[in-house]
Amino acid sequence: MPDPTRSGSAHPRWDAEERHQNGRSAVIRAVAPGRVNLIGDHTDYLGGLVLPMAIHLGTTVEGQPGGDTVTLTSTDQAQPAVVALDVEDPAAVEPGWARYVAGVVAEVRPATGFTGTVTTTLPIGGGLSSSAALEVAVALALGFEGTPLELAETCQRAEQRASGVPSGIMDQLASAAGVEGHALLIDCRSLEVRPVSVPDDVEIVVVDSGEARTLVGSAYAERRAQAEMAEAVIGPLRDATTLDLKKLQDPVTAARARHVMTENARVWAFAEALAEGWPAEAGALMAASHASLRDDYEVSTPGLDALVERLSATPGVHGARLTGAGFGGCVVALTEPGALDEGWKVRPAAGARVLTS
Ligand code: GLA
Ligand 1, atom 1: nearest CA belongs to which residue? Predict the structure, then answer.
């Protein structure tokens, strides 16, 4: 199976000539999907395994190169983003959404500015990686050239600079390297991406808990630090065994480590269950993942737990779990077709690309 991150042609590129056809700047349209993570949360920043899927909802940046700022208006935002090409501190830029644009400008450092619009079909801040989709679409619109992996790494740095959160690479890599009809088994140590076909006889439904994600930044950084504390004692959690776990004296550190270790194992098993067409097994792994995120990693909330419980008890639902960072946001469910009549039925989509006209 080809690794979509290594291919240099995952999205069409354009050269300087195309960007300035007949002395006039071509209109550039860059589209980037959001993502839902089927299983494997709080493992990416520890070199673990994740299984996200790029979805058919996404963000489009359309406009023309030129000028000495990157100026974007958004149908969903009152204030435009106006970012100087030499922006130094993306986290200080106003309004808040412009920080993600500024983070990309600071990483890509385009030679000329850009003026255009942003539109999205993603719920903003709802746990489907609207910020990653925005970053990836902006980077492509600004002329970023490189492999999908390089695009994702650039946008991960942009996200970290914009938000101050030490986030992993999953969201940006899913958006950059998505494969139509497939989820992506990503090894966050080797950064190899293996597409896993999503069977036709299941639906993937995302339901918003309605709970705004709070404390995501500080609690996320705290969890990451706790897991790294465990790694300082027993080495990479990716390679650790249950015997190693016993060396961790502090029960909280041990619980954080246990989540990461068991979650990595569940991702492998889930990928196999999906590929073999065993939805009941896949659903059971999702339930176990949610319990581990709730009890060992402590990133769930009463609202997410109640939603997972209600969805899981619905006939035709194979399994459900919180998806993404947690602390509010969305739940993802694997179901028989038509089992749930709520939320977003998301379809596996191709990764980000550029269209010029
Ligand atoms: C957020 C981060 C990702 C990942 C998830 C948790 O979405 O951006 O890198 O760590 O949380 O799995």
Answer: 325
Establish whether 3 is a catalytic residue: no
Q: Which residues contact 309 (CB under 8 A, 6 or more apart)?
A: none
Q: Where are the beta strands (DSSP E) in 40-76?
A: 49-65, 69-74
**Which residue in 3, 41, 44, 171 is the catalytic one?**
171
CA 263 to chain centre: 17
For residues 347 and 183, what is the distance between their CA atoms, to the nearest angstrom?
Answer: 10
Q: How far is ligand 1, taken at its centre, from the CA of residue 65, in Å?
A: 32
Is-cis flag, bond preceding 251, omega within 30?
A: no
Helix (H/G/I), strand (E/B), else coil: 175? helix
pLDDT in tens, 148-171: 999 999 999 999 999 999 999 999
Dist. CA 170 → ligand 1 center (Å): 6
Query: Are 237 and 231 a contacting pair, CB within 8 Å?
Result: yes
The helix/strand/coil state of 252 is: helix
Q: Which tens digit of pLDDT belongs to each residue from 262-302?
A: 999 999 999 999 999 999 999 999 999 999 999 999 999 99
